[in-house]
Amino acid sequence: MNLVYRGKTKDVYDNGEDGLRLIFSDRVTKNAAGEIDPGGNTVAENTEPGQGEACLLMASAIFEELAEKNGVSTHMIAYDLPSLSMDVRRGTMFNPGIEWIARWVCTGSFLRRYGMVPGVYDGMRFADPVFEITLKDDAAGDPLVVPSALVALGVVDARTMTALLDSNAKAMQAIQAMFAARDLDLWDIKIEWALDAKGAPMLIDEVSPGCCRAFDMKTKKRVSGIALAERFRR
Length: 234
What we know:
Elements: E1 3-6, E2 10-14, E3 20-24, E4 29-30, E5 42-43, H1 51-70, E6 76-80, E7 85-88, E8 98-106, H2 108-114, E9 124-135, H3 147-152, H4 158-181, E10 184-195, E11 201-204, E12 212-216, E13 222-223, H5 225-230
Pathway: Purine metabolism; IMP biosynthesis via de novo pathway; 5-amino-1-(5-phospho-D-ribosyl)imidazole-4-carboxamide from 5-amino-1-(5-phospho-D-ribosyl)imidazole-4-carboxylate: step 1/2
Catalytic activity: 5-amino-1-(5-phospho-D-ribosyl)imidazole-4-carboxylate + L-aspartate + ATP = (2S)-2-[5-amino-1-(5-phospho-beta-D-ribosyl)imidazole-4-carboxamido]succinate + ADP + phosphate + 2 H(+)
GO molecular function: ATP binding; phosphoribosylaminoimidazolesuccinocarboxamide synthase activity
């Protein structure tokens, strides 16, 4: 197979008519302070043993349950833990790329943006989830964008945007329920969508420890990395 793209933590190979093959690696990213950070933009010099397996383990479990129990379309065809590989369908990407975020608790960048609002505090739980969309642009800091702007700019047409909003809300609700079933309190999560061969929304990339913030319901302590992925082992 020919290498198509080497990402920060995954390598993408051409898998012929079946689509693409993702190879998960133990590479990790770091932030501007030099700390290991899943949201960082620089690949660390050293790897984190077990990171690739953890990401594939969690992503495959979530994709499988979303498709089988919730009717959510994903790009996963098959996966193999020993080889750290996932075979996926090709999808039509948006230009620029778009990331979808759901928040159930006020913290992190959301708190930094809106902390000046009276009564807002770190850990404040929302009555309903807050959905955000950002453009994938590291240099610009992944700026927030509203759905109508994406339509006006021609990134997404109006009909597709409606379908994406519906699919995203459905998937996020299902994912939160999966976490709760494993005694995990999901505070926020980031996922990515593309369009399948028929132009319908298809969840892509991965849903793994690096794209979410979750806490143990009993101890109230954050669960992350390999420990978080282990909760999804079948």
